[in-house]
Amino acid sequence: SLSMARSSDSSLPQLPPRDPQAHKGDFGRALLIGGSRGMSGAISLAGMAALRGGAGLVRLAVPDACLDTVASFDPCYMTVPLACDADGRIALAAREEIAGLAEQATCLAVGPGLGRSQELTVLVGWMYETLTQPMVVDADALNALASHP
């Protein structure tokens, strides 16, 4: 379990010092799924927050249509392009890629900047029902689950 230490000069919690021999993979592998054309900021900020929160390796899976924009926000997270629809949202065809990426992750987040479509409703429902990693469901992923049969 992660314990937070308090710094004497700050009331904000600080992550404890890491073992100099540790590898980034020792601190978890977060996969964040989201973003869409015109809404790339939300997933980018979520990735930055995951890094600041102590995740060792952060990977953002985003529609190919906004990959360059998301990648330009922060060089410390990795980006993976996903198949997208004509409106720049993640397509249902990305399901296999997401499944493979999820196998390498210790935790997932889905929703920031995702957008809305019938395909996304099906895709988010599939992720929620199928993927076994702990998952944060946020933003439009919540809307998708609310309308998922």
Automatic annotation (TrEMBL):
GO terms for molecular function: ADP-dependent NAD(P)H-hydrate dehydratase activity; ATP binding; NAD(P)HX epimerase activity. Residues 1-23 are annotated as: Disordered. Keywords: ATP-binding, Lyase, NAD, NADP, Nucleotide-binding. The keyword Oxidoreductase does not apply. InterPro entries: CARKD, Ribokinase-like. Pfam families: Carb_kinase (PF01256). This is YjeF C-terminal domain-containing protein. It comes from marine sediment metagenome.
